[in-house]
Design goal:
By secondary structure, this protein is of the alpha/beta class. The protein contains 19 helices and 16 strands. It has 4 domains: about 130 residues, Response regulator (Rossmann fold); about 170 residues, P-loop containing nucleotide triphosphate hydrolases (Rossmann fold, 3-Layer(aba) Sandwich), CATH 3.40.50; about 110 residues, Orthogonal Bundle (Helicase, Ruva Protein, domain 3), CATH 1.10.8; about 45 residues, Arc Repressor Mutant, subunit A. The longest helix is centred in the N-terminal third of the chain and has 29 residues. The two termini are about 55 Å apart. The structure holds adenosine-5'-triphosphate and magnesium ion.
Length: about 475
């Protein structure tokens, strides 16, 4: 559990000092400021979750401080310290967004009671965020684009599994193939769609934090656990937990997860009670889990529990026929976003897109289309709005085909791998030539004879050009 940070803004030295001492000994990280201005600066650099601010400060008043901080981060909890009897000011402070107020002089006991309430509120805010995060991104199968047979079959299968309530699903596939998208669509299609969809990236947290995020903890489970906290499994009860990058979880969390899958109960960190949870777990990874099992970094029993229903999303290069459709879909999306009105894709660009290998899969296509829509000045998307590597890789694959056929047969018309659209500002022919030669040399592993064959020029010409371009 993260240590909470408290900022104390108070000009009276004694109060500042005693609050600091009390709060630090209670386990908080405390920073202090004497003026409102200094307080705001510290707030911006340290992002404390809780602020104690006095009202009567030199220059900037406490009320102003509250306004400013709330405009910077509405979630910050502010405790307003005010002189006894100034009830009007306290009311204004609450209106401005303070969560609590405390009358001076106060006892530490009063401070502790108020802190308990503040922390409970922070926890609720956190839960609200978790819920909002999943609500914002409602994705359905309608958002999954593709007419290829493989994709259609996968969608069909996924829809079927979606209807089973708590069946665990393992999503496999290279990065950018749509695992996240499928997880959300499955949830939306299921009968639990009105319940939470909670996602956590297992690679993003250190192991102890991951455990307490997933399972929650009881008060006193460790020094900072002043209060019990629900984990994501409890928050998601009735819905879906999406465990992204499952290949990254450590052994101890793996055992606990196995327990959840087998018994459908969780136990909070530091707790003894078994809390039943009704959830579907969808796990995803782009790692080879089977290999991880062989290497003993992933438990075999957990692996088999997870892969009851396994869906492997194909890399984009294995369903290229979907590229034009996806590209069109992203053009519409980015037209809307960037207020453009690109009508479609020029055929030369479609050829390039379809031939490209897409190592980053659909995410890469999406990014390429975003960039292209921004750059494009014509009504149709042109090849020159595509990034260099897409043009080059096409030279690559074409040349490979030629190589495989061991050079062009006589009389055969050499096929042009791509059409080049010359942009209005012009194009450097020698620059292009240099790039093509570089590619050929790479492919031929610097064997000049081979490279010259790829380029259909004599070896001497190639040598001359290598010198010319200082390759
Ligand atoms: N079939 C599809 N139709 C439309 N958009 C898609 C499709 N598949 C993926 N996308 C989009 O491609 C991007 C990447 O997909 P997603 O985040 O689901 O990939 P991932 O498999 O989870 O990748 P990673 O392993 O890197 O997390 C997202 O913007 C997603 O919306
Ligand atoms: Mg993902």
């Amino acid at each position: 559990m993260k240590q909470l940070k408290i900022l104390v803004i108070e000009d009276e030295k004694l109060i500042r000092w005693s609050l600091e001492k009390h709060l630090s000994s209670a386990g908080y990280k405390v920073i202090t400021a004497e003026t409102g201005e200094e307080g705001i600066k510290l707030f911006e650099s340290h992002h404390p979750e809780i602020i104690f601010t006095d009202n009567k400060l030199p220059q900037m008043q406490g009320l102003e401080v509250i306004h400013k901080i709330k405009s910077l981060d509405a979630d910050t909890a502010i405790v307003f310290m005010t002189a006894f009897g100034s009830i009007d000011t306290a009311v204004s402070a609450m209106k401005a967004g303070a969560s609590e107020y405390i009358n001076k002089p106060f006892t530490f006991e009063e401070v502790d009671v108020i802190l308990d309430a503040v922390k409970q509120n922070l926890e609720i805010t956190r839960e609200v965020h978790v819920l909002r995060r999943q609500q914002k991104a409602t994705v359905t199968f309608d958002n999954i684009i593709g007419e290829s047979l493989v994709l259609k079959q996968i969608v069909q299968l996924a829809k079927k599994i979606a209807r089973t309530q708590t069946t665990t699903i393992l999503l496999l596939g290279e990065s950018g193939t749509g695992k996240d998208l499928f997880a959300r669509a499955i949830h939306a299609e299921s009968s639990q769609s009105t319940k939470p969809f909670v996602t956590i990236n297992c690679a993003s947290l250190p192991e102890t934090l991951l455990e307490s995020e997933l399972f929650g903890y009881e008060k006193g489970a460790f020094t900072d656990a002043k209060q019990q906290k629900k984990g994501l499994f409890e928050i998601a009860d009735g819905g879906t937990v999406f465990l992204d990058e499952i290949g990254e979880i450590n052994m101890s969390t793996q055992i606990k997860l196995l327990g959840v899958l087998e018994n459908r109960v969780i136990r909070r960190v530091g707790g003894t009670a078994n809390i039943p949870v009704e959830i579907r777990i969808i796990a995803a990874t782009n790692k080879d889990l089977k290999k991880a099992v062989e290497e003993k970094t992933f438990r075999e029993d957990l692996y088999y529990r997870l892969k009851v229903f396994q869906i492997t999303l194909p890399p984009l290069r294995e369903h290229r026929e979907d590229v034009p459709l996806l590209a069109d879909y992203f053009i519409k999306y980015y037209n809307n976003q960037f207020k453009k009105s690109i009508k479609g894709i020029h055929k030369s660009a479609i050829g390039l897109l379809t031939n490209y290998n897409w190592p980053g899969n659909i995410r890469e296509l999406r990014n390429v289309m975003e960039r292209a829509v921004i750059l494009e000045t014509m009504s149709e998307l042109q090849a020159d709005s595509l990034p260099g590597e897409i043009v080059h890789l096409n030279v690559h694959s074409e040349a490979r085909r030629v190589e495989a056929a061991e050079g062009p047969s006589p009389g055969e018309k050499p096929v042009s791998p791509f059409e080049i659209e010359i942009p209005e500002e012009g194009l450097s022919l020698s620059g292009l030539e240099k790039q093509v030669i570089k590619q050929a040399l790479n492919m031929a592993e610097n064997n000049q004879t081979k490279a010259s064959k790829l380029l259909k020029i004599s070896r001497d010409t190639l040598r001359y050009k290598i010198k010319k371009y200082r390759l």
